[in-house]
Each structure stands twice: as C-alpha cells, then as structure tokens.
Protein 1
Amino acid sequence: MESKMDLGTKAYDQVEKINQVNQKLVQQLNNGTYGPNEIRQRVSQITNEKIDSSTEIRLPFYTDFGRNLHFGKNVFVNAGVMITDMGGIYIGDNVLIGPGVTIVSVNHRIEPSQRRNLNLKSVYIHDNAWLGANVTVTPGVVIGENAIVAARAVVTKNVPANTMVGGVPAQVIKTIKGEN
C-alpha cells in the first residue's frame, strides 16, 4: 500500500497523539527488566494487537509508531531492531529478524519545501523469511516466502520467494532449493 501524509493535517495530528503514548511505552519497555510474556504484553500495547505467545522479541526494541506493525506467529526478533512502521510493516509466520535490523516504511519527499511531509509504503515479510544481522529494508519492499537476506544487505527491491540476496544494494546470490 502506498499513501502520503502531510504535516499539519488531522491525520498527522492523530499520529502525533498516538506517538506521545507509544514513545513512552517503548522507553519503558527498553528501560525495564521483563520476561518474554511481559515483553509480548507491552509490545501488544504498542501495536494494539495481541502478540502470539510463540513470538519472541529481544530488547532493546524500537518503533517510531507501533500501530501499523503486525506480527505473525513464531516470529523471532533479535536485539536492537528498529521498525519505522507508519506505512505498515507486515511480518508473516516463522520469520527470523537478526540483531540491528532496520525495517522502514516511511520516506520524506524529495522537494525541499515538502521535505517534512511523508510518503508511506508498506513492507511485507512473508512466512519463513530470515533477515540477517544489520539488514536494512526500505519502503515498499516485499520479501518472499523462505527468502534469506544476508547480513548487512540493503534491500531496495522485492526479494523473490526461495531466494538468497546480499550486498548493497541487495542482489540475488542463489535460489534456495526445497528440502529432500
């Protein structure tokens, strides 16, 4: 999904109200000592959706908005992940997200007079995908089922299912064959 959001509009003001609440929740989450169930409960407050008991999120965990972040089941999110989700981030089942990963669904406009306004493009990470350490996923990208993104890759284009990519910008390394 692609949309725009302009500074000073009712929609932007509504986002800011949610941000005021969620940024406090994120700070509390990252400054406390919590077990896995408590972490899921607190992230559920931020996302306004129940996080399945099979999902594990390691701290620190960062999000700029929270309400457009959607987790599947049996997801593993390692420490230091930053998710910019205002444009929508959809994470499927059995996804592995390595430490220091950044997933972004928001970009600013190119024109200097419009730079504070936002372009929003959803990111989709399909079932069984694996994002290695310090990967960056840019707005509008779809990562296919069973795909692997090698550590430190910058993903600027869609990643086909059953494919391994790596590099800056990410390029196809190989096709992943099915299990025997």
Protein 2
Amino acid sequence: MTKRKLGKKPARHDPRTYRLAAPLHYRLPQPPAAVNWAPNAVWPMWANDRLGCCTQVSVASAILTWTGAALTPITLAETQVIANYSAESGYVPGVPSTDQGGVELDVLARWCREGYERPGQTRDYLTAYGAVDPTDTASVNRAIAMLGGLYIGLQLPEFACEGDGDWVVDPSFDNRIAGGHAVWIHGYDSEWLYLNTWGAARRMSWSFFTTYCDEAYGLVSRQNWTTLRGVSPDEETPDDLVTELRASGATS
C-alpha cells in the first residue's frame, strides 16, 4: 500500500475571515448540476507519502486545476512544494521533528501576502479567500463552479487512509479519526465531490463531506482568473468579486 501522511493542524476559525455565501449567491444564483475542472489531471504525490505537507499539496492542486482548465497546466515540482511547506510551516529538510503540518488559514494568508514558488515565474499570489459553510451545499457548489475548486480540511477516519476506494460513511468501517488532512476539491455532481490526494484522483460522498469536513475556503486567484471568467454570469473581474467579498463582512 502507498504510504500516506496527514498534516492538517486543527482548524482555526478566525472571525475576521470573509464570508463567501452572499457574493457567490449574487453572482451565481443557480449553480450548475455538475462541474469538474480537472477530469483528466495527473496528480503527483508531491512528497505527501513521507511529509505532512498536504496543506501545500492542496495549493499545488489548485494551481494545476486552474491552469489545466486553461489548457496550459502548470505542475509544481516536488522540490517547490517542499520549499513552500518549509517557508510557511517551518519544515527543515532532514529534520523530522520539524514536519508538523500546517494551519489552513495560515497557509492561505501567506499565499496572499508573500506568495509561493511556482514554475515559470517568481511567485504565485492568491488574491483573496473566503469561508464556506460545509453544510451549505449550494454555496459549496457555487464556490467550486465559479472559483474553480474548494480548499478544505477534514478530520479523516482511519479507513480513508487505507486503500483506494471512495470515501463514504459506513458504520462497518474503522471510523476512528486518524488526524487532519487538507484536500482540494475540483468538481461535484449530485452524488460525489471530486478531489485528489496522495497522488491520485478520488471521490467522496456528500454525507462523508458534511460529516468530516471541518473547514472550507473558496479562493480568488487573479493570476488564474482568465481560466474561470466564463462561469460568472456577469463576466466580472476578480477585483469586483473581492470588493463584494469584503463588503459581505466577516464570519460570525
């Protein structure tokens, strides 16, 4: 079995984090029934078989999804993912005690503020991000459809760390919590959410998502916006969306 590491520290819900529900509802009142931004993507392991770098694997997954949807996929090298993990979370290569994982909000804040390594240019910068309620299915769908995916955290049960099957809620499985894990969701339909983890595509059921997801964020990327503009009914710019996001206030 492929080795798999977890690395998401406990969710920290900051009341200053913007809400995404209102801006997305305004711009996309009726989300499409199904979306998949990366149906044929090839997902590297990105060192997540030996390091707890899943928060940065999800950053790399977002970049690959957005650029791949524009027919010019950009895949971060494993060395770049590790460098980004080191820069944000303090990992020192060769010193196992420093492999402590990351806090999703810290990862996103640094992406906006200082950027991360990316092939072909000096840095990749995130424009903004906002919290999405995992139990609000319509907002989850809107974020994936309009923004090209959803950056989430899970408290992953033991069975989900083994094998290659779908993630579903089943009382016969080993549902003891193994730890926190960050993943990038790049699609959905009425039955499944589509994601990648540990170097492979995977599906999770909606009930699994609402049971085990403890944080979710929609990301606004000005660098990649041309990939996604056709989804917005009003062809809005990222600056318009960021203005609406800030006007919506922070989470309660």
Protein 3
Amino acid sequence: MSAHQTDVNKPLEYQDHQGRLNIIGFWVFLGAEVALFSTLFATYFVMKAGGSDAGFHPADMFELPLVLIMTFLLLASSFTCGLALHAMRDQKWGQFMTYQIITLVLGIGFVGFEIYEFAHYVGEGVTLSVGSYWSSFFVLLGTHGAHVSLGIFWIIGLLIQFKMRGGMTPKLASKFFVSSLYWHFLDVIWIFIYTGVYLFGLMQ
C-alpha cells in the first residue's frame, strides 16, 4: 500500500496531482456551504425575533439531555475521524478502519437521535406548518442532518473502495481527506446550532 507514495515529505493525500486539485476545489465548495448555512441561520434568527412560535416555546420543548447526547456523539465522531486521518498518513490500516467505523457508528447514532427528536416534536403537535419559527428550526436542523447522513454514505462508499481495491492509493487518500474536511465542517456547524438554537432558546 505504501508503494504509491513517492514523496515522503508529503502526506499521502497530496501525492496525486488530481487529488490535490480536488482538495482545493472542495475548499471552494465549503465556501458555498458556509453561505448556505449562514442564510439558514439568518432566517432562523429573524423568525425567532418575530416571536412566531405558535405557542410552542422553545424553552418548553427542547430537551437538553438529548441535545447533549447528540452533541457528544457528533464531537466524538469528529475526534475519531481525525484519528482515522492520522492513521491513514501513518499507513496503520487496522487503526484506520477501526476509527472510520467508530466515526460511522457515532454519526449514525447522532442521526438516529435527531430523528427521534423530530418525531417527539411532531408528537407534541410541532410541525413545519405551526409557525414560521418552527419552520426555520426544522429546515436548519433538517439540512444539517441531511448533510450528516450524506457524509455517512460518503464514508461508507470510500471504505468499500478501499476494501475492493485491496489498499490505499494517493487518489483515494485525497477523497478520505476531503470527507474528513466535510465531517469536521458539519461538527463546526453543529456547535453553532447547539449554541445559537438550543442554548439561546433555553435561556429565553
């Protein structure tokens, strides 16, 4: 697996020219993602300022223990994702696979709890149609959750490629690196959601 590496002074994901271009292109893509989530956050705060929660006040609906579990799962997955990248650069493939699988399990757990949270709100009568505040809430968190789900399938697809090809190549390594950037980005977005949506919502 190390036979593809030609420059020991560069990480594996930067060995392939096309891979390097893909990494640069993905940074540009993340800029567009920042714009998307900035718009969603702006919409959410405008709707919150309007007070249109249709009688379902966030402080009465949010369940902090559940949110803390979700936060722990996603932040822990970011840590294991970083460990997987480090193991990839050291070409420790057993550790690499272990950390990637743990990352997936934690991510799936996060999505599962978010689905449970949404189902709980719907069971209490809170839906997209009850008011503009809750519409913006569901769109913001739903968009983030959809991105996490996409990231899970993305990493699974890369792991399948890794196993089918019998090892790592610089081009595939660049794909794993890009997926890790994506995963860390989603964790940063969640920190803003946790602070701006849940904590501020509970305090008001």
